[in-house]
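Page 37, continued from 36.
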């Protein structure tokens, strides 16, 4: 099962690369067309905005899985193992609540967004705003899995040290300041 999950997240990373690449190519091509040929592609402006939305929200799920989001390691590092576990549980409970609210809000807006069309491409706006369903569900599932492991005592020492920021080298810590 873990291999399938890892493969899924590798596919998400490839999707992020493709979205960023397509966004950069479209913006670059549009700049060249505007300045060199006094014309442009209006579809590239719209699609690059939508790709950026998808890039941000898919990237949030990938970053959450890799413990890449901001944290307050300086405070968490002051606690012992039990204090860190309490912080980890509280953090994931808050994330779970917020991501479930995000999912529910996107679900409530589904019909409205599905009935609206983008001005240039004409695609349904659910293809843009529907990413909230993926992000809300993805973050919720990761948070639930972590909460289960933390509550059942299956948190690894490595995971606790990552949460406290102790896995960073001095150079990495210096880059953060």
């Amino acid at each position: 099962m873990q291999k399938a999950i890892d493969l899924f997240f590798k596919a998400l990373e490839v999707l992020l690369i493709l979205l960023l690449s397509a966004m950069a190519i479209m913006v670059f091509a549009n700049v060249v067309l505007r300045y060199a040929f006094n014309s442009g592609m209006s579809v590239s402006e719209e699609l690059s905005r939508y790709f950026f939305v998808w890039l941000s929200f898919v990237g949030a799920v990938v970053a959450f899985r890799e413990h890449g989001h901001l944290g307050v390691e300086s405070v968490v590092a002051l606690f012992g193992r039990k204090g860190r576990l309490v912080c980890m549980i509280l953090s994931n409970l808050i994330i779970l609540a917020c991501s479930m609210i995000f999912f529910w809000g996107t679900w409530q807006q589904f019909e409205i967004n599905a009935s609206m069309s983008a001005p240039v491409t004409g695609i349904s706006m659910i293809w843009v705003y529907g990413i909230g369903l993926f992000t809300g569900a993805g973050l919720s599932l990761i948070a639930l899995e972590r909460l289960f492991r933390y509550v059942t005592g299956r948190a690894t020492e490595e995971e606790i040290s990552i949460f406290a920021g102790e896995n960073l080298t001095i150079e990495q810590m210096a880059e953060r300041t």
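The two ends are 38 Å apart (CA to CA). Flag for discussion at group meeting. Residues 71-177 form one domain.
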